[in-house]
Design goal:
This protein is of the alpha/beta class. It is 38% helix and 12% strand.
Length: 374
């Protein structure tokens, strides 16, 4: 099988993993551009990332996965030499800035992980590529392999897929959450803190809607990972049914649910929220019709309005429409002189009108100034 056909198969196989990729329109041509995804790094920089599997053979029979054992789909794999040469040629052409490398389990997790490491080693040493590499850690990888991965890659990840062992067992009979995944996540957390490590963060992914899990359960699992394993970020992938799998008749999960999870996750990571504070419906899912931060504020009238000139940073961060940058501007400005009115606040806060119902400015309701058009 030639390289182009392998890329077509293994690039398409990698599309299930959303970690690191921003939303992008569906490509209409079967060319190399179909497998290049924009990936957003910390600080907002976006790079063009080749996302590909090394091998799409897998002995596991995960109910949601296109690569599951026994499914009728073309199987192939790259050698480390083939994939590193292909990637280097794309870099030379200016087509890509980074690599996202994952894989099916192949013949064994240890052997396949060795081939993944060999691929990145060639890219780094022979082709002197010093750009961004995201390397997936396979369930079953050994501690020494994870240590080496942290030395070669810029980011590591291993996917939980489900919020608990009970939910994962319904999706995959072979995967053991504590042994296969959380143990490796612990090793990853240690490896990225090592002095020799190039990688400084690690991530995971949840498949949303493949089981009966609730948003509260998923966010609770993510929150524990942030606290216990120093996880850099969780990604949420709305389930889509794949023909030839046991879940092919299950409805597609709404993209709006995925979006609300990302909004809520941001509150956990940056705004000091905990999962039990978030407003959920009786099902345990976030309300599809409202921004989680706004719903929380509306559910706590005893806390609002707050005086913009005196409220602590922690409370200002919970005002709808205020982000970290806006709060920093407000705190710096009020050190010099009090903020006098909504018009002055609007120069510091682009979404001041959204925040106005929850604020006092020099003791007066900002909502009243909004009503007056001030």
């Amino acid at each position: 099988m030639d390289t182009d056909r392998k890329l077509e198969i293994l690039g398409e196989s990698a599309s299930q993993d959303v970690a690191g990729a921003t939303d992008r329109p569906e490509c209409r041509r079967k060319d190399i551009g179909e497998f290049i995804y924009p990936a957003q790094l910390s600080g907002g920089r976006v790079l063009r990332q080749l996302k590909v599997l090394l091998d799409n053979a897998c002995p596991f029979s995960c109910a949601y996965c296109a690569q599951r054992a026994g499914r009728d789909t073309p199987r192939t794999r790259f050698t480390p030499e083939e994939l590193s040469r292909l990637f280097a040629s794309l870099v030379e052409r200016g087509a890509v800035d980074g690599l996202f490398l994952s894989s099916g389990i192949g013949r064994s997790p240890v052997a396949t992980m060795d081939r993944m490491l060999a691929t990145v080693e060639i890219i780094r040493r022979r082709y002197d590529f010093q750009g961004f590499v995201h390397l997936k850690i396979l369930p079953g990888a050994e501690p020494a392999q994870i240590e080496r991965a942290a030395e070669l890659a810029d980011r590591l990840s291993i996917n939980l897929e489900a919020p608990s062992a009970a939910y994962l067992s319904r999706l995959s009979a072979q995967k053991d959450l504590p042994g296969d995944i959380l143990r490796r996540m612990s090793w990853i957390s240690t490896a990225v803190r090592a002095r020799r490590a190039r990688a400084r963060s690690h991530t995971t992914q949840f498949v949303i809607g493949a089981g009966e899990e609730s948003d509260r359960e998923v966010l609770g699992a993510a929150w524990r990972l942030y606290r216990q394993y120093s996880l850099g970020r969780a990604y949420y992938s709305a389930f889509r049914p794949i023909p030839g799998t046991p879940l092919e008749d299950r409805p597609r999960a709404p993209l709006l649910r995925q979006h609300r999870l990302y909004q809520a996750d941001f509150l956990l990571r940056h705004y000091g929220f905990s999962p039990h504070e978030l407003v959920v419906e009786d099902s345990g899912n976030l309300a599809a019709g409202g921004d989680p931060k706004l719903l929380w504020a509306c559910a706590h009238p005893e806390l609002f309005p707050v005086e913009v000139n005196r409220a602590p940073r922690e409370l200002l961060l919970r005002v709808p429409g205020f982000g970290e940058r806006t709060v920093r501007r407000i705190i710096e400005a009020r050190k010099i002189q009090p903020i006098r009115d909504l018009a002055e606040l609007a120069r510091l806060a682009p979404l001041a009108q959204k925040a106005a119902p929850f604020l006092l400015i020099r003791g007066k309701a900002a909502r009243a100034q909004l009503d007056l058009g001030l």
